[in-house]
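Hey L., structure's done. Input below.
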Amino acid sequence: MSMLLGTRRTLLQSVDRGDMLPQYLLNSYGAEIEGFDSVAEWVVSLGSAADNITEGEFRTGASSIKLTTGVGANAIMTKTLDAPLTLNSGEHLRLYFYMHDFDNAARIRFYLFTAGYATALEHTIEFAPLIPPCRNGWNVIDLYEDGFGGTASWSDTFPLLRIRLEPKPGVQCSISCDSLRAGLQSVPAVLWMFDDEQSSIYDLAYLYMQPRNANATFYIKTAAVNTGANITDAQLLTMEGGGWSIANHTRSHVYDLPYAAFLADIQNGRADLAGWGLSVAIDHFAYPGGQYDDDRILAAVNAPCLTARVTGKGFVGLDVYGDQLFVLPIYMGVNTLTLAQLQGFVDEAILYNRPIVLFAHTIGPGADITQADFEAIIDYTQAVGIPHLTINDIYDSLSGPITKPPG
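Output:
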């Protein structure tokens, strides 16, 4: 048990069992520190930038700022903030931007400089395949203290902001930045999410968690249900009755279907779940293999689904815009991780005030996580007072405060 357990319990007294969790799982929405309202306020040292007044590509004010690289060459813009930024422990930043050509972008580098550019904090958003869960159109990225590197300290004062956009070789890319907020404080929570059809999720996860009033989400590949030693529809009904979210993972679990066939596969998976009598979470969806592109997202929207989860690493960032609802990230797949590492992720959820998604396919010998480690991390999470949430809890929090689950 962690030496800081008592301290962490003190931090979590405001969300003891039975309390309400706030809308969007945000105790504080912070304040906008930059609205990207006028390119004239910025110094553009590489590439080009312009006020973007295109309808749908700005939200606050009358425009966003569209930053465009050269061909294979970076774009950089820098601003002296209207008021120097101070950052508080346990709070984070949130950046909203519109991606114009995701496939051409390599990364965004986000800098906060102390006076005279003496020292800096740097946060890099890499656009590797599926990581982070971004897409063409609107995106939201939560920037936490432990995601920054550099020579400055979180406790420093930062009068200068810089954004650097880097394209892939031989191409150009653009983003339109619209808003940067600081002072956000989320609620620490753990969401366990499982995929496919393994019966160990019933035998070793549900049967252990249910007596402890701890719930999770299980995305089902429906063609595999009731076959061999896989999960059965009767077990899924029991799990849903016990508080779990039983959600859709398509019928066939094939990623690279043409759009119409992929849309039908989502709808068939939902129909299978409904046919077995499930209803609570069948409009929530996870992409097969976690893979997505514009067509997969469009299919999820048109199915219609309420949410769609990927396997890119990121943080659940909820707000009125719902930018993440069809690219919901996980925080960490648990395969290859030790119990100490998992406990560390739970500790960080408390330290930085954030919900995290832990993801697995199987539990048991030779599986993603052993039975002993799974039981230990469930017990640890409950001991430090963090709630176990489901995808339904996440979605319900968009409409208003939710009652904290008992476990």
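Residues 1-17 have pLDDT under 50 and may be disordered. The chain is about 20% helix and 35% strand.

-- N.
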